[in-house]
């Protein structure tokens, strides 16, 4: 029986189309096809594989406006954010990979210790096999395509399961890879929800790359651990934004508003905890209130904030705000949750008079909510920022760059921006990933290509000598080895004794 995923515009409620869900019984076939296509794809030179990525980039550029429209219709985000935060980073990732992948993934000569004299050492990068990518709905293009192309560049074949919440983008991703002319079954897209995802996870992939919730990530990790399948897990965040009194407050206020509300707050790196030095707290609160109330909600090209994407997420946001207000928080801007209508739009919320125990401070909200909390000292704010189960990103705002670097080095976080917010993810030369419950592993950068490969160590000897000094027999070698190692490992090496010992061992 065919099951359909219904694509509905969350901002308007408009039905768009139905997309056929992948049947559970087809999962085995997906893996069979992926392993068959791997045999040829993995043998292509890196330069040959990159030709297909160049074609993909061209297809995306030619169809950029249409791609933006699909993202807007499927997510409810504004067109500018679809373009700037979903399409552009994907194109930049392709550009970076095409430019550097061959160098990054080619065999590397490494040093060989003197005790292995006469040999050469290399590292080679061997594709893992079939990579399963499970991607989320908040940035349905970028967070699907970037790990996919990273895996493909390394010679793997890929099965992608995009989020069932944004099935239209998932379908369009399938189309653009087809238009780019990728060989059959090198990249396959499986559409569906939790059941399809669970079946694919249980299907023995060679690597799993998951972006999504902590809860689902832990389930995937448990399944993978039983089969020793390596994983990268990109999970949630509760990112602190720290504003010191000597910061450029106008810039910091604008940065905080964008960092908290971009994509309607549905960003794993959203600024979800704003810590402001006590002496400027009231002024800063007023500044962000003014900036926030200038924002335009909608989905046209002049709008700033779109709708929420996933109805269940809206309820989580509502619960967090309600919990805070019931425990004494003050609503500085926005509408009380009991007056929210049935639409997927949430007017941006600013909250004050908070404590660390409120859900909106300690749990990931993933919506347009800005909790603002005062602090007195540098030590205090570092402690508050690190009092979280998450550690994905953070930002520090101050004109004292020495202090900024000092604070940044003490934050338990996968990334820190100074007088900036969120943008570390846009630099594909930097690794991206989190600490604690924010996930396992890194992607982007050189690491983001090599995680999809086995590192193979190779030592080469020309085979001219009939034997090695450490081979049998051991008779009469102990004292020579003792002198060899003592002369080599002492602080002031004794090279003559080293050479004498080595030659003696060669003659044994």
Description:
The structure is a single chain. The mean pLDDT is 97. Strands 12-13-14-11-10-16-17 form a seven-stranded mixed β-sheet, with helices on both faces. Strands 7-6-5-8-9-19 form a six-stranded mixed β-sheet, sandwiched between helices. It has helices spanning 27-41, 46-62, 64-75, 79-105, 142-153, 167-179, 194-201, 214-226, 249-261, 281-292, 311-326, 359-362, 378-386, 401-410, 445-450, 478-489, 495-507, and strands spanning 4-8, 15-20, 108-110, 119-127, 130-134, 157-161, 187-189, 207-211, 231-234, 239-243, 271-277, 330-333, 349-352, 369-375, 390-391, 393-397, 415-418, 435-436, 439-440, 453-461. Helix 8 (214-226) links the parallel strand 8 and strand 9 (231-234). The termini are far apart. The relative contact order is 0.12. It has 17 helices and 20 strands. By secondary structure, it is of the alpha/beta class.
> How many β-strands, per DSSP?
20
Fraction of residues in H or I helices: 40-55%
Catalogue the unreliable spans. none
- Largest beta sheet, briefly? 7 strands, mixed
Helix/strand/pairing category? alpha/beta
End-to-end distance: 76 Å
Beta-strand portion reads 15-25%
Principal-axes shape call: globular
In spatial order, strands of the major sheet run: 12-13-14-11-10-16-17
Radius of gyration: 27 Å
Mean pLDDT value: 97
Count the DSSP helices.
17
């Amino acid at each position: 029986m065919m099951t359909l995923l219904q694509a509905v515009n969350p901002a308007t409620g408009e039905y768009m189309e139905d997309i056929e869900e992948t049947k559970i019984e087809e999962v085995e076939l997906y893996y069979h096809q992926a392993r068959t296509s791997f045999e040829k794809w993995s043998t292509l030179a890196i330069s040959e594989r990159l030709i297909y990525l160049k074609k993909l980039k061209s297809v995306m550029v030619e169809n950029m406006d249409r791609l933006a429209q699909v993202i807007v219709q499927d997510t409810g985000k504004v067109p500018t954010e679809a373009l700037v935060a979903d399409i552009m980073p994907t194109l930049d990732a392709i550009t970076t990979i095409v430019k550097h992948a061959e160098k990054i993934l080619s065999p590397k000569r490494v040093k060989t210790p003197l005790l292995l004299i006469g040999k050469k050492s290399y590292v080679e990068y061997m594709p893992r096999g079939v990579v399963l990518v499970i991607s989320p709905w908040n940035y349905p293009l970028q967070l699907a395509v970037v790990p996919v192309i990273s895996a493909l560049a390394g010679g793997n074949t890929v099965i992608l399961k995009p989020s069932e919440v944004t099935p239209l983008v998932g379908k369009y991703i399938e189309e653009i890879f087809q238009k780019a002319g990728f060989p059959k079954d090198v990249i396959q897209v499986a559409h569906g929800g939790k059941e399809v995802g669970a079946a694919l996870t249980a299907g023995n992939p060679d690597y799993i790359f998951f972006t999504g919730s902590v809860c689902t990530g832990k389930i995937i990790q448990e399944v993978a651990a039983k089969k020793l399948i390596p994983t990268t897990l990109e999970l949630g965040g509760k990112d602190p934004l720290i504003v010191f009194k000597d910061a450029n407050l106008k810039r910091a206020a604008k940065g905080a508003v964008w960092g908290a509300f971009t994509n309607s707050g549905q960003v794993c790196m959203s600024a979800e905890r704003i810590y402001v030095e006590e002496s400027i707290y009231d002024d800063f609160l007023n500044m962000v209130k003014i900036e926030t109330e200038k924002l335009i909600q909608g989905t046209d090209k002049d709008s700033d904030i779109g709708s929420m994407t996933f109805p269940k997420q809206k309820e989580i946001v509502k619960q967090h705000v309600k919990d805070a207000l019931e425990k004494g928080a003050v609503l500085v801007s926005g509408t009380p949750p009991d007056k929210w209508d049935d639409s997927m739009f949430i007017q941006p919320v600013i909250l004050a008079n908070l404590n660390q125990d409120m859900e909106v401070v300690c749990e990931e909200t993933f919506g347009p909510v800005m909790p603002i909390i005062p602090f007195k000292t540098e030590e205090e704010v570092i402690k508050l920022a690190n009092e979280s189960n998450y550690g994905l990103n953070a930002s520090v705002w101050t004109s004292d760059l020495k202090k900024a670097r000092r604070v940044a080095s003490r934050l338990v976080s996968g990334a820190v921006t100074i007088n900036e917010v969120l943008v570390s993810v846009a630099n594909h030369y930097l690794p991206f990933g989190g600490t604690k419950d924010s996930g396992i592993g890194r992607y982007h950068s050189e690491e983001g290509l090599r995680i999809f490969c086995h590192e193979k160590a190779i030592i080469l000897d020309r085979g001219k000598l009939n034997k090695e000094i450490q081979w049998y027999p051991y008779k009469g070698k102990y004292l020579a080895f003792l002198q060899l190692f003592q002369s080599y490992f002492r602080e002031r090496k004794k090279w003559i004794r080293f050479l004498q010992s080595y030659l003696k061992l060669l003659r044994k």
